[in-house]
Amino acid sequence: MKPKLKIKSEDDMLPEYDFRGAVRGKYYERYRQGTNVVLLDPDVAEVFRDAAAVNSALRLLVSVAEAKVSNLREGAETQESPKRPLQPASLRKRGGGQRRTPKTARG
Fold this sequence. Notes:
The chain has a domain of 37 residues. It contains 3 helices and no strands. The longest helix has 28 residues. The termini are far apart.
C-alpha cells in the first residue's frame, strides 16, 4: 500500500493578510547591495535618536582611531631610542643575576 501524498493547498495565504498598499520589490536593490544590521543594546540605543546619529558617531570614532594609529606609526619611524634609561637606576634590574655588595662589605 502506497502512503498518501499530502496535497498542499495552493492558497496558503490567510484571509487577514492585506497587501493592497504593498510595493513589489521595494527593498530589493538595498538587499542586493548587501546589508549589515546591528542590534544596539537598549542603553546605547537611548543615546542615539536615529541611524544617522549612530553612523555619525561611528565615523568620528573611526577617524579618531585612524589618526591615533597614524600618529603612532609616524612616531615609531621618526623616534630614536632614548639617550637615558626610562627608569631610575634604583629600579633598574642589574644584569648578570648577581647582587652587588657595597665596597665596605667586601673583605
